[in-house]
Amino acid sequence: MTDFGRLAGPSLLRLVDEAVIMNRDHTQFNGRMSAEIWDSLEQFLERGSSAVSEPNRFGCFLMMDPKNQLSLHTASRYWGCAIQAGTQVSGVFGIPLPDSPVKSMEKVKKEFSPLPFAFIPHLPSGSPPDWNAIISSSASADARNLLSFPASQGKSMMPSIQFDAARKTVTLFMPGFDKSEIKLYQYRGRSELLVEAGDQRRVICLPPKLQGKVEGAKFMDRSLVITMR
Fold first, then answer.
1. Does the bond joining 159 to the residue before it have cis omega, within 30 degrees of 0?
2. Which parts of the sequence belong to the ArsA HSP20-like domain (predicted)?
3. For residue range 136-194, what is the model confidence (pLDDT) as tens digits?
4. Number of structural domains, the chain?
């Protein structure tokens, strides 16, 4: 945020608060300095970010058509975007056609490994789906299990960041992206990496033993491997 934004922001927040809440004698920003307002706002955002990053408090799932390549690509992209946003996907739901071969379904499962995967019966078109009936059917046993234990499944997810001080590498798990879409920056005395993928940015704080200049990066097995020096 620019210096002008930090200076003008608290005043704008006061105006919005007073305009939206007209029946109060005072607002939560009355008498507070700009620095105090920013501290409160940053603490609020940090609490929200912390909740989203904990699988036992927040879970999200991918849903796609296993026979539709665009659907597969989009689901994989959302997976990578969720990681960039600081959260973890808890699992994947596939909605196959009735005549879908078993081999192709297993191939799709491998593409989204290590995420837990469950199939939901094919949804008929022409009327809104009855989700209670769909989830309670015998064919949706795996889906019910997947929805019942998102927290324990989240703990077994592949870590989005791996630091290897011995090899001087930082490995970022980034499914759905390729190397040409990823931009890497350094700032703050080379103690942090700024990773830009798609329309999202993510700051990676480096441990002391890995702080330094980026020597190179390569993309392999859905991961960006960054070598430091």
1. no
2. 169-228
3. 777 778 788 877 765 445 545 678 899 999 999 999 999 999 888 999 998 777 889 99
4. 3
Q: Which residues contact 148 (CB under 8 A, 6 or more apart)?
A: none
Residue 134 near residue 144 (C-beta atoms within 8 A): no
CATH code, 89: 3.40.50.300
Strand 89-94 to 117-119 pairing: parallel
> Is residue 39 in a domain?
yes
- CA dist 126 and 93 (Å) reads 21
pLDDT at 2: 47
Identify whether residues 94 and 119 lie together within a single domain: yes
Asked if 147 and 64 sit in the same domain, the reply is yes
DSSP string, 148-205: H-HHHHHHTSPPSEEEETTTTEEEEE-TT--GGGEEEEEETTTTEEEEEETTEEEEEE
The answer on 199 and 143 residing in a single domain is no
